[in-house]
Amino acid sequence: MTDASLIVTIAKDLEDLIPTFMTNRAKEVETLRAAVAAGDFEQLKQLGHRMKGVGRSYGFITVSDIGKRIEDAAAQANRGALATAVGEYADYLSRVKVVYE
User: Tell me: the pLDDT tens digits for 52-96?
Assistant: First the structure.
């Protein structure tokens, strides 16, 4: 992942919503980690599916892309792929920078 891919440009009219969005994503990482540890593939599929929709809605394409990977890995009960995707998600969220236009 290059530094440029960590910059997300968001419409100025969503600026008030983004802090809550990001807080919810951080909480989501913990939920994902717990679900991976518990082997709760159904919950992981649901969370991944939700990430796909919410990410694009707010302009965070990477969130949607990782959500798809989580949903697909959960459908295959692939714990290794799930752990990798969740780790990448946490890393992305810790480094993403939001710019408003």
Answer: 999 999 999 999 999 999 999 999 999 999 999 999 999 999 999
Which one-letter amino acid corresponds to residue 20? Answer: T
Which helix (H) or strand (E) is 69 found in, with range?
helix 61-75
In terms of C-beta distances under 8 Å and separation of at least 24 residues, what long-range contacts does 82-87 make, across chains too? 82/32, 82/36, 82/44, 83/36, 86/29, 86/32, 86/33, 86/36
Instruction: Say how far apart CA 68 and CA 43 lie, in whole Å.
Output: 14
Q: What are phi and psi of 80, to 5 degrees?
A: -60, -45
* Number of Cα atoms under 13 Å in the Cβ half of residue 52: 12
pLDDT for 40-55, tens place per residue?
A: 999 999 999 999 999 9
Q: Mind giving me the DSSP string for 3-57?
A: GGGGEEEE-GGGTTTHHHHHHHHHHHHHHHHHHHHHT-HHHHHHHHHHHHHHHHH
